[in-house]
Amino acid sequence: MRFQYIVLVLVRLKGKKMNKENFELYNYLNVVGNPKEVIDKILEEIPYLESIGYAGYKEKKWLKITLDRLIPDKKEDNQNYNFKENYKKEIKTISEKTFRKCQDYIKEKTHIFLFPTFDKFTIEKMKGVSGYCPWNNTLLIFINFNNGWKDQLEETIIHELAHSLSPYAKFDAPIGSWIILEGIAEQFKDFIIKGKKSLWVTTISKKESFEILKDIKELLNKNDFENYKEIFYGSGKYPLWAGYAIGYNLIEIYLENTPNLNWNKLLRENPQKIIKETTSPQTLAKNL
Question: Which tens digit of pLDDT belongs to each residue from 199-248?
Fold first, then answer.
């Protein structure tokens, strides 16, 4: 897991124009081969755009690091990927519908890059769809066409769009900022799509999430990838998705205490300001 003109959208399947909207869609889902071959072909074909570089990266080598992390299966034991031609139209329709729902919050054209994934974690835990936002106005979406992928694609676009709208969603932001940014993204998704909470914000209770928050208080101002992985992906000490649940519950408190909420403002708010307001001893004591 940064916009309201109507502009020409280039929905691309390996470079072919297909659609109109306030986004550009670059579709590499029909690139075939094993994971290494898929990554090599994508890197050959990816365009350089003046505003965002290579899909949000100044150099292809940095994009390759992300593709190497999110396209192959971690244990290299899954080679299954099945793309059908009719998926092109479905993806276009889902993307257009999603951006229409979000158009009041979008100020600039958004670039969406669609890539295949062989990752079993994404397939088994995330209904075949994951996302990443490397730069303003840039979404990377990874898909394996598992049961539930259509709904998950819509939800993932909204979540990552929230990140792309924030000037603070940077890879070197501290853990506390990312807890808030993930909470904003999930609450924004729930605001746009009513009644569809994600698994990763309900897997632990509110009380448990705040107990973990007390435990990690000293880490909130650090930019530490190992602790980030533990807090968000639960490699041992904390449950899977804990960071997402903490952020979601903190933003729920913020929403309750913010009358006449302006989502355009919240999507672009400094997360450090929010975490200070929502993690005071009094606030935590009231919610534990």
Answer: 999 999 999 999 999 999 999 999 999 999 999 998 889 999 999 999 99
pTM value is: 0.90
Backbone angles phi, psi at 110, to 5 degrees: -105, 140
The residue ranges of every structural domain in the chain are 11-165, 175-287
Order across the sheet with 138-143: list the strands. Answer: 11-13, 23-27, 110-116, 138-143, 129-135
The residues facing 113 across adjacent strands are: 26, 140
CA 176 centroid distance within chain: 17
Nearest Cα to Cα of residue 23 among 118, 165, 151? 165
Instruction: Report residue 52 as tokens.
Output: 């965002």
Closest CA to 279 of 214, 206, 218: 214
Place of tokens 């506390």: 176
**Distance from C-alpha of 245 to C-alpha of 200, rounded to nearest angstrom:** 6
How many whole angstroms from its chain centre is CA 207?
25
Q: Measured between alpha carbons, how far is 21 from 4 in angstroms, rounded to an integer?
A: 10
Instruction: Please classify residue 178 by burial: count the beta carbons closer than 10 Å to its beta carbon, then call 0-12 exposed, 13-18 middle and 19+ buried.
Output: buried
262: left (phi over 0), alpha (psi -120 to 50) or beta: beta
- Contact indicator for 153, 143 with CB cutoff of 8 Å: yes
CB count, 10 Å around CB of 279?
A: 20
